[in-house]
Design goal:
Elements lengths: L8 H11 L8 H13 L16 E5 L4 E6 L9 H11 L4 E10 L21 E8 L1
Antiparallel strand pairs: 1-2, 2-4, 3-4
Length: 135
């Protein structure tokens, strides 16, 4: 993701004053009204489920009662992502049953933004896609 630049308030005010710029009038209530209607104007569908604990991306498809989770790990933890997810589903005492586990490769394939901030990034731990069905 490209980086963006925003001037500090003092610098921006000085820049405008030196050039004689004036901000245009804005009806603040109209802006708030428009944003509120956009934000609250949509009906949020009711979904059922719960999050037990974790750090993962979850996609649910209610019509076929299928759960897909991409899960990986970090070098700072001595843990196996596959075992963590298998234990989580088992300990959740839910009706989700693990059907398939596939390698999703490593995060470097997606060229994550985090690599921009690290001098010598470690090779990432393999991520997995877990497919479960509600039984």
């Amino acid at each position: 993701m490209p980086r963006t630049y925003a001037a500090k308030p003092d610098y921006a005010v000085k820049f405008w004053k030196e050039r004689g710029f004036r901000p245009r009038r804005v009806d603040i209530l109209a802006v708030v009204r428009e944003r509120a209607s956009r934000y609250y104007g949509y009906h949020i569908p009711q979904v059922y489920g719960k999050v037990i604990r974790g750090d993962s991306r979850v996609i649910t498809i209610p019509s076929v009662e299928r759960l897909i989770i991409r899960f990986g790990g970090i070098h700072d933890r001595k843990a196996n992502p596959r075992e963590i997810m298998k234990d989580s589903l088992r300990l959740a005492d839910s009706h989700w049953r693990l059907r398939t586990v596939r390698s999703a490769g490593c995060s470097t394939a997606g060229k994550r933004q985090a690599n921009q901030f690290v001098r010598s990034p470690k090779h990432p731990i393999e991520e997995f896609d877990f497919y479960a069905r509600l039984e």
